[in-house]
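Please, structure for the following, as tokens.
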Amino acid sequence: MDGWKDAQQRELKFWVSLVRGDFPGKSREDVRQHIYDAGTRRIAHFQLSEIEGRVLDAGCAIISLHEGRPNVAVVAIDPLLDDFAREMPDISKLGQVANVEYRCCKIQDVEETDFDVIWCTNVLDHSDDWQDMISHMARVCKRGGLLLLGSDVRHSKKTLSGAHISQVTEALLLYEVCKHFDVEWHTPIQDDDRYYFCLKGHLGHEIS
């Protein structure tokens, strides 16, 4: 747990440095657009237009990628949101903002079990127990609900020594997800020096 707490503090410093260094004086919308552009590039195989209804953004960082999108009501969670809001009050918020409710918590703390979509990208390798996170994704997802999941894989020793503390591989990720979800497709995505593995699945849904 101490290792995870240390990694979370490094993650906090990363975001504070990014916002203050790359976006000094920029508006919240400028930062949100940057996160949206970078995020959608790394998960280009996901069709955002198919995401509707109640969405759980599990690990939203400073701003949910889904903020302002039509046809979705989002609960966005991150265990660092209190710290983000304290350090960057003009950028990171708590409570209701547009179509998003921001909560400082982990997925294990979420009580609702009726989400239409579980969205989780670039989060699992920051977790102290990513397998447990996946089991809770299944718990909070409604029957037939959609899972859209992407994670860094094939980490180097350098990246694992920072905020990324858990080794996630394609094979292990697919194995854990298939315990709970019917996987429709999965694919690798190379983005600069980072290698992502993305998948789409449904909870108890018959894939045609």
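The chain has six helices and eight strands. The longest helix spans residues 2-22.
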